[in-house]
Amino acid sequence: MAGRYAIRPASAADVRDVSAIERAVFSDPWSAHDFAECVSSDVPFLVAEEHGTVAGYVVAHQAADEGEILNLGVATAHRRQGLGRALVEGVVAMLAGRGVRVVYLEVRESNAGARRLYQSLGFGEVARRARYYRRPVEDAVVLRAAIPAPGVSAKL
Ligand SMILES: CC(C)(COP(=O)(O)OP(=O)(O)OC[C@H]1O[C@@H](n2cnc3c(N)ncnc32)[C@H](O)[C@@H]1OP(=O)(O)O)[C@@H](O)C(=O)NCCC(=O)NCCS
User: Which domains does the chain show, CATH number per domain?
Assistant: First the structure.
């Protein structure tokens, strides 16, 4: 990733920019209210910023030692520069620091780019959810990655 980007926790001031990217990227977007709730509830929520402009974001959730990546988006103009990878790595590290040992996520079956990104980070397919998405209706692929215990060297 180009060094001009910073990955940092999201704040309330980022919600407007994050929501704008979300609306441009997804056909069934989260609302600004959804993102504002994530900021106030202290879930893992990171943004990639370049010179004061938000270029991407990732949101996750934790339940005991399991984590889930709930949302990931990079603005079109900032893609293929490693931001998606840096955001996922950042949120996985954050989850690991909170005691998470395994991370799940769902992705549209047809989303080849995101699936390649997750695969390169050690996520593997564990299940399918039929007709999980709307606009358009599509199956979800469920991916999983284990986080090694502290001191153990392994991918993710
Ligand atoms: C998926 C997404 C987050 C990737 O963001 P990004 O910053 O472009 O990703 P990166 O630059 O970190 O890509 C890392 C690797 O992932 C793979 N990848 C990413 N986008 C890809 C694409 N469109 N086609 C093929 N491979 C792709 C490549 O292997 C890439 O490495 P490379 O550029 O060296 O070939 C971005 O395309 C996006 O926001 N898409 C729309 C929203 C979305 O699908 N979110 C995920 C929902 S689960």
Answer: 5-146 (3.40.630.30)
